[in-house]
Write the structure tokens for this entry.
Amino acid sequence: MNQYGSMTRAGANSECLCDLRSDTVTRPDDAMRRVMAEAPVGDDVYGEDPSIIALETHLSDMLGKDSATFFPSGTQCNLAAVMSHCGRSDEIIVGDSYHIYCDEAAGASVLASVSMCPVRTEPDGSILPEIIQSAIKEDDDHYAHSRLLCLENTVGGQAIAMPRIKDGVAAARSAGLSVHLDGARFFNAISALDCDPAELAEPFDTISICLSKGLAAPVGSVLVGHADLIARARRIRKLLGGGMRQSGILAAAGLHALTHNVDRLAEDHQRAADLANYLNGLGIGLAVAQTNMVFLTPATHPDLQQKLAAHGIRIGGQSPTIRMVLHKDVDDTALAATKAAFERVIT
Ligand SMILES: *Cc1c(COP(=O)(O)O)cnc(C)c1O
């Protein structure tokens, strides 16, 4: 079973004390709902939604780029980015564990007619420059045209260090490729690397950022980058059915999240470290914390998912490693309940 295996309607009504399946499960709090209710709105397809404009301007300023466009999902945001860089029969080079290659229903191939060249990712989530170089194809009628390198940060909860990113980007640039960052958890990376948003964004032409992961907004992603690429992506968004009207209600939630929920990501990282430490102390197996995620490889404890569910704790499937994700709606009480449940099911 994959990490999404438990994301079904089954069990949706049983009492849940702590949901660690993903940081997408957060619910908007009262303050966020208020700003959504009061958001000034207009028709964003006409470019007239003031809250959307405020969100896009806020993020492009923060990342030191020209412009930005709001999307309904990270998947659509990445696809529009790929399509803004690439034409039919072009190729992207992408890490073999990255979301664009593994978790977006092959949209780049299916909808963009772009060939995906998956390459080995290192244990830290980066791609070695020599791997990138050897994947870039020469100009030959037999080959797809290598056009774009897609990196991701964080990857499986790991923040890739700046020098490793720059090495990979330099390899792509030297062959004339553009570079996109899938920064679904961009701010988790910022928090872990203790760097500036503009610093992490600097090497990239485009960056996609999810508002609905650790930032805890209900909906939305933003593509940030050079003006010409964002203009193309905006047109592609319409093509893909992602042009929305009074979407300022969603942008207001995103702006609220960027104002109130960035600094608190460090708390999620702290609780992840705490939980991993606790699980290692229990001797249940090997637990490793990476930013807001804990990866547990249990030694001899089958069916942990079902057993913990009986105690109101939801975790992802065992494959054989279990991913647990800390987020805004896991407070110290929920964390304590999780620890207690683990202790009960293994003793
Ligand atoms: C969640 C995620 C996305 C986008 O997912 P959506 O569910 O479509 O918003 C893209 N990349 C990564 C690495 C992600 O974790």
Q: What stands out?
A: Residues 73-75, 78, 99, 152, 182, 184, 210, 213, 221 surround pyridoxal-5'-phosphate (CB under 6 Å).
